[in-house]
Amino acid sequence: MLISIATGSANDASVAMAEFIAGSEEAFVEMMNEKAKSMGLKNTHFSNPTGLPVENHYTSAYDMAKVLRECLRYPLFREVSSIYEHDLRGGDFKLWNTNKLLKWYPGADAGKTGWTNEAKYCLAASAKRMGCG
Fold it and tell me: What CA–CA distances, in Å, run from 100 to 7, 12, 112, 117?
């Protein structure tokens, strides 16, 4: 599930994980907003766990950079968000990461992309250079 969320942006898996963790999508969104507040995110309010456009769901590039910085503290996040290509069902189906930096930019090692009609292309990513990080 985590690979499908991080690599394939699987919105259905995001909702299923939210329901599993918090009992309902709405309860998970409350947890997301509590975490955003505790992180000091001033321009973010979540209304769903997918990032798809809906009323009162917004963020800023600065806040997403802060979220990414927090996520990078967790090795599992780094692992699943760094997968460029993943085989499912014995290779019958592939997930491709839309973060092309993982393949094209030396040192790119984690992050997440997004795209909606409203926001267009979005990216929060990290890279290690010259032994740093």
Answer: 11, 23, 10, 20
